[in-house]
Amino acid sequence: MNIKKKAQREIGPIGKQNRIMIAMVILSLCLIIIIGRLFSLQIVNSTGKYERQVDQLVEEVPIKASRGDIYDRNKNVLAKDSSATAVNVIPYEVEDPERLANTLSTKLGLKYEDVLTKISVLENNIVEVKTGLSQGTAVIVLSHNFDGVSVEDGTLYFEPIKIKDAGAVASAIAKDLDYNYESLYEKATRKENQAVLIKGKVDNALAQEIKESEAIKDADGDIQSYNGIELLDDYRRYYTNGNFASYILGFTGTDYTGLYGIESTYDNVLRGEDGVVYFQKDADGNQIPSQTKIIKEPVQGKDIVLTIDSNIQLMAEKAVKEAAATWQTKSVTAIVMETKTGEVVAMATTPDYNLNDPFTLDANFAATHAEDLVGKTDQEKLAEMYKNQAVSFIYEPGSTFKALTGAAALEEGAVTPETIVYCSGSIQIGDAVINCATGPHGYETVSDAIAHSCNPGLVQVIEALDPDVFYQYVYNFGLGARTGIELDGEESGIINRLPTANGGINEVDYATFSFGQGLAVTPIQMISALNCVVNNGYYEKPTIISTITKGADAESPKQIISTETSAAMREIMRKVVGYDSDMTALSEGYSIGGKTGTAEKFIDGEYSNTKYVTSFYCFSPVEDPKYSVYVVLDEPKAGAYGSTSAAPTAISLMEQTLNYNSADVNLNEAAAEEIQKGTIVVPDLVGQNIDFAISILKEKGIKYSIDPATTGTTVVSQSVPTNSVYDPNSELVLGVGDSTGETAGTVIVPDLSGLSIQSANEILTGLGLNLKITGNGFASSQTPAATTVVEKGSDVSVTFTP
């Protein structure tokens, strides 16, 4: 017995320790469960609970920030915000949805069905339905698996917008809880209790009229509500002169985000930061006005100052409209730039559109671009209208490019201004014959070849240059890449380097490159490149944003050609104006140099014989250029050429610009009198198509008429002998006839394999043959085959493949 007791005494403490350990383990487990539950409630699920509580008690309303203003260089306002109203509806407070939808759709120009949907939207936050549910009851309620129904901590919630069948939900849960069906149904179908935007930027007076028309009154005539309407302060973008500078400024969309132009490219600067207002709500979701608190004030956007001068912009817009009316164009674009800085002082295109009504297709644009808009949706038509031709229109520059060819050759020492070239009226390059549109000129200097716009002369100039070196100049002049001007939609153009089968340079393509064919540019690229030629060789990146906005971080200019080469090119381009009697008369009293261009358009796989792009670049004063002007006409009527259509517009605009800034620019009449007018040599026109002959005469400034006693399409005689000096007081009379006799004959079809469309067209046109095109890319097959003898005027069908 004693032994037993002793054993018990010895074993007792061990058993006690075991019991303590078990108790500690149980307590630890309980503690872990409690901690886990607290973590779940306070950390994992706290965010959602907090957000739901906030949603139930607080309404959040954004305050729209005012956008910054846009100014011209003289701080004239071009775009700014004006006070407006955002018309909102609180669906929960709407008493007569049909009446409200009818009012809003009628007065705001909206679709009735869309408005009715908006003002009937269900609550997208949780609605507290009933508290104190037991665990067992919660399990029963949740067993139905209804979307939008949840139970948390003994509280039943509905999320009306997620409930698919409110009647079924209310019926089932009414039985589960022995609860009122109508009350459950009302909460399951509760409308949104926060403001829903119907339309922003509404005129203040119209918004107030809408609100007052929806007033609901009691029997005593007192207003009980406004049928859910809530008006909030808003802003509307206002453009001071509708269509003014539309392609520069752009506009804002319905969400107040910048679309197109400066409004788009500088949207992050102009738009500012929105503010927020929080309204405290009572248990029924009604606002408590006395508790209104602004949490974050809106920050107005920053202003933008442009390089545009409104006065010169108006001149440019008037000039392009007059040119468009005179020449019945598809479009006309003009750019006026400060030559030394690259700052754009005017950029105008017609047709344009109304910035205060940008979603209406301009009638003039619809008429002139009808072919382009066939089969397009309304949105696609608007997208076409919004394109800024100054930076997005791609075209072959034609003869204006000759100034770049000349500058590169002079800079490399391949030629000098006095180097002699020869023009017989055409030049043979491989199998191709390249004609001169203004010759023959016989022996002439490189200076005169550029001034006379002589194609054979320029071919000889470019052949003196290493192709790799020449193409590098082209790239350095900024062609083939976007300029980076601060406008949307800029295109990079196309610079093709087409090799032969053995990897060498394609001599025909290289030759035609010298006079601006076989490449594509944009107006902003071309004026920037030509500015470099006359601005002592310095390439200035074009800009439309003033240094007031950009600060002093503008890019440094790069010098592409020397000051000496630039001076020589300025004198050559002075001759271009001086050698043309009409341009000389137009620019009398002003020191102006320039270069014309006329190019066929490539349409539906072939070069058009009726649709052209004409252009003219000019700068002044020649001795120290301050301004440059570039004008481009797209598809002017028949008879339009660079010298007759674009040049008068550009020269007139230049003169207006100089006069406007006469305090800054010396017109230098003495220098103007020293313009080298030169002499005009009469070209050989016999055998040429009459339209082509007329284009030559107009480019050279020779007055002409057609003998009324003759009919036909080919020149068979001319009253002034070939190569004689033209007397400006006389008139050259052309006799026309058919293509028989001297102008008829046969030719051998050349091998066109591997040539581009442009090159093939040049070769065949030079031989008097017509190109018929299938496909795109490079020539892979042809009919008739090479070496076949055919009559002049025959068609040659060529298939082009990538």
TrEMBL record:
Gene3D superfamilies, sorted: 3.30.10.20, 3.30.450.330, DD-peptidase/beta-lactamase superfamily, Penicillin-binding protein 2a (Domain 2)
Keyword Metal-binding: no
The keyword Transmembrane is annotated on this UniProt entry: yes
Xref: InterPro entries: Beta-lactam/transpept, Beta-lactam/transpept-like, PASTA_dom, PBP_dimer, PBP_dimer_sf, PCN-bd_Tpept
Entry's localization field: Membrane
One Pfam family from the record: Transpeptidase
SMART domains found in the cross-reference section: PASTA
Residue ranges of domain PASTA in the record: 676-738, 743-802
MF terms in GO: penicillin binding
SUPFAM superfamilies in UniProt: beta-lactamase/transpeptidase-like, Penicillin binding protein dimerisation domain, Penicillin-binding protein 2x (pbp-2x), c-terminal domain
Keywords: Membrane, Transmembrane, Transmembrane helix
Gene Ontology process terms (BP): cell wall organization
Listed transmembrane segments: 20-39
GO cellular component, one term: plasma membrane
PANTHER family: PEPTIDOGLYCAN D,D-TRANSPEPTIDASE (PTHR30627), PEPTIDOGLYCAN D,D-TRANSPEPTIDASE FTSI (PTHR30627:SF1)
Similarity-based family: Belongs to the transpeptidase family.
Protein name as annotated: Penicillin-binding protein
Organism: Acetobacterium woodii (strain ATCC 29683 / DSM 1030 / JCM 2381 / KCTC 1655 / WB1)
